[in-house]
Amino acid sequence: MQKENQYQPETNAVRIQTARTDEMEHSTPLFLTSSFCYDNAEEMRATFADETDFNIYSRFSNPNVDEFVNKMVALEGAEAGYATASGMSAVFASFMALLKAGDHLLSARSIFGSTHTVVTKFLPKWGIEYSYFDMNDPGSIEAMIKPNTKMIFVETPSNPGLEIIDLKLLADIANKHNIILNVDNCFATPVLQRPLELGAHLVTHSATKWIDGQGRVLGGAVVGRKDLIKEIYIFCRSSGPAMSPFNAWVLSKSMETLFVRMERHSQSALTLAQALENNPHLSMVRYPMLPSHPQYEIAKKQMSGGGGIVCFELKGGIASGVKFLNALKLLSLTANLGDSRSIASHPASTTHAKLTDAERANVGITPGLIRISVGLENVKDILADIEQALEQSK
Ligand SMILES: *Cc1c(COP(=O)(O)O)cnc(C)c1O
């Protein structure tokens, strides 16, 4: 298996591959097997005693899953990694394996909805405290660290508000206080941003989004420092959130096109954001690589592209958001993002409909906020559909 980080990242994304079988196949086959065999009792004993690196059982490891993990590790510049059934199981495992009762998690307030649920509803049930900080006020973070703070968690850019934080600055704070910095890198992917190079200790991913890129399978990964990944592996090996070999096979093939896709998604998203900036129906357009983005300078410093998500605020609030969705002809109305097909969503009337206006404002969601996941269609068609729907959203 070509495991070494011997080539450029684009080449690693294509060429890291499970060792060829005797059939001499070119493309990695599917290893749909729950367990693995041994030639004799001694080999089996040695494997269970961790004296070999042979596979045992697909909850622990599998050739397809290893291929996917090895690509993620190479692209993020990590020491080790573990792949999980979904992005949420990756985030959850990173908390469960490294936090214990009495510990404190310091998290950004603008985080994915299910992560928010885990942090606020489940961690306290197990005696793990949390506090939220405002990503727009990084100066407030250090004072929130307590003697029992074990981890800082952040998503940058955040979903859905595209808030951005300086990862180097966060890493300096974390290292000064001997705290783990855990970064959800779902929106940028390792193509556009590598948090470990900026000093983070762990990176979590929902591979369901840009890594798959075609809205087919769920998956997740945690990569980072070897000692931390070892704890996560031990937790996952026993608790069972393993990635399916089939999903790993799909995701590893997807990664062969990740670089070219992210380049196109970013290019089209920037074109779209620029074209919408002066639209009379909008009070705000947000994209990391627009100079009007509040953290534009940080985005330019730590990201090589803005990614595929563009947000804007409709002047007409919630009612306009509903009209806008109904008027779209090309863009899909669906909960996913990071697909080859462009997607529109209106958090205030869907994912965040149960919250009050004040609660929504707290997590950066305003009544007329629309999130566009810019796909791989011709950007002229994407823009034309959005513009005609805006005309009808008044
Ligand atoms: C979707 C998402 C997740 C959760 O991933 P799943 O694969 O849906 O479990 C976590 N973080 C971010 C930023 C996401 O967008």
TrEMBL record:
Its EC number is 2.5.1.-. It is an enzyme of class 2 (transferase). The lineage of its organism: Bacteria, Pseudomonadati, Bacteroidota, Chitinophagia, Chitinophagales. Belongs to the trans-sulfuration enzymes family. MetZ subfamily. This is O-succinylhomoserine sulfhydrylase. Pathway: Amino-acid biosynthesis; L-methionine biosynthesis via de novo pathway; L-homocysteine from O-succinyl-L-homoserine: step 1/1. It holds the Pfam family Cys_Met_Meta_PP. GO terms for biological process: 'de novo' L-methionine biosynthetic process; homocysteine biosynthetic process; transsulfuration. GO terms for cellular component: cytoplasm. The modification N6-(pyridoxal phosphate)lysine is found at residue 209.
